[in-house]
């Protein structure tokens, strides 16, 4: 029998912060989650504690670390700075209303992959570091010759989730991918003819139906 490589990737967006509530751009600025909003994570916590994860990875920023602590999963997490949100540079802490009249901001909204945030991070740089993380993770999995179905949790940020889902699921563009704070998305992947293929996309906590 041939080797079967499969995995479920659970992407979880951190709990909400003060800047998130105020709709401010929050990239590398290290804001903690709001304690009085933790009850919004209860359903997610109950769902994830039922799953036996093989590995957990998290961004190093405190909003991700604090969310993971609240979820109280039994497995220790690997911290990786490549899972950070995009660095928005001069736009950190700004709102759409404050930026909407700036031409460079509108250009970035229209084509974020080819424009840089001022004194921040370019789309190409952002994609490269996310790709680096997943290339390394996937290579490690492929080096394991046993048949398996891995369960992997990734605690990260909205932009990271948007990018990776839109990369793996061609029917979803970057801006179309939505995941609320304290919610997640499960991608089920199979290794088929030399590449990872997404065979299902589901919301977490599960809503009883698949998104594609």
Describe the structure.
The active site is at 14 (tele-phosphohistidine intermediate), 85 (proton donor/acceptor). This is Histidine phosphatase family protein. Keywords: Hydrolase. This protein is 30% helix and 20% strand. With 212 residues, it is α/β, with parallel strands linked by helices. It has one domain: 3-Layer(aba) Sandwich (Rossmann fold). Strands 3-2-4-1-5-6 form a six-stranded mixed sheet. The longest helix is centred in the middle third of the chain and has 20 residues, at 123-142. The radius of gyration is 17 Å and the shape is globular.
Please write out the topology.
Blueprint (H helix, E strand, L loop, with lengths): L4 E9 L4 H4 L20 H7 L6 E4 L3 H10 L6 E2 L16 H4 L3 H8 L12 H20 L5 E9 L1 H11 L15 E9 L2 E10 L8
Parallel strand pairs: 1-4, 2-3, 2-4
Antiparallel strand pairs: 1-5, 5-6
**C-alpha Rg (nearest Å):** 17 Å
Percentage of residues in DSSP E strands: 15-25%
Report low-confidence residues grouped into runs of 5 or more: 207-212
Helix/strand/pairing class, anyone? alpha/beta
Q: What is the annotated CATH architecture?
A: 3-Layer(aba) Sandwich
Number of helices: 7
Number of domains: 1
CATH topology: Rossmann fold
Sum up the overall morphology in one term: globular
Helix content range: 25-40%
The largest sheet has its strands arranged as 3-2-4-1-5-6
- The CATH superfamily label reads Phosphoglycerate mutase-like
- What's the main sheet like? 6 strands, mixed
Average of per-residue pLDDT values: 91
CATH class: Alpha Beta
Cα-to-Cα separation, first versus last residue: 30 Å
Write the H/E string, N to C. Answer: EHHEHEHHHEHEE
How many strand segments? 6
Binding site for substrate: 13-20, 63
GO biological process, one term: negative regulation of glycolytic process
Keywords: Hydrolase
Protein name: Histidine phosphatase family protein
């Amino acid at each position: 029998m041939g080797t079967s490589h499969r995995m479920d990737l659970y992407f979880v967006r951190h709990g909400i912060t003060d800047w998130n509530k105020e709709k401010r751009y929050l990239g590398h600025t290290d804001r903690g989650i709001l304690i009085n909003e933790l009850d919004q994570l209860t359903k997610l916590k109950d769902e994830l504690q039922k799953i036996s994860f093989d590995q957990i990875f998290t961004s190093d920023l405190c909003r991700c670390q604090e969310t993971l602590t609240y979820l109280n999963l039994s497995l220790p997490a690997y911290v990786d700075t490549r899972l950070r949100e995009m660095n928005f540079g001069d736009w950190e802490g700004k709102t759409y209303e404050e930026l909407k009249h700036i031409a460079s901001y509108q250009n970035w909204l229209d084509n974020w992959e080819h424009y840089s945030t001022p004194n921040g991070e370019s789309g190409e740089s952002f994609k490269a570091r996310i790709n680096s993380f997943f290339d390394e993770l996937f290579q490690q999995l492929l080096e394991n010759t046993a048949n398996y179905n891995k369960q992997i949790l990734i605690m990260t940020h909205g932009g990271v989730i948007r990018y990776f889902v839109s990369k793996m699921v061609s029917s979803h563009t970057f801006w179309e991918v939505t995941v609320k704070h304290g919610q997640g998305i499960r991608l089920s992947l199979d290794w088929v003819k030399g590449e990872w293929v997404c065979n299902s996309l589901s919301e977490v906590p599960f809503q009883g139906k698949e998104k594609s």
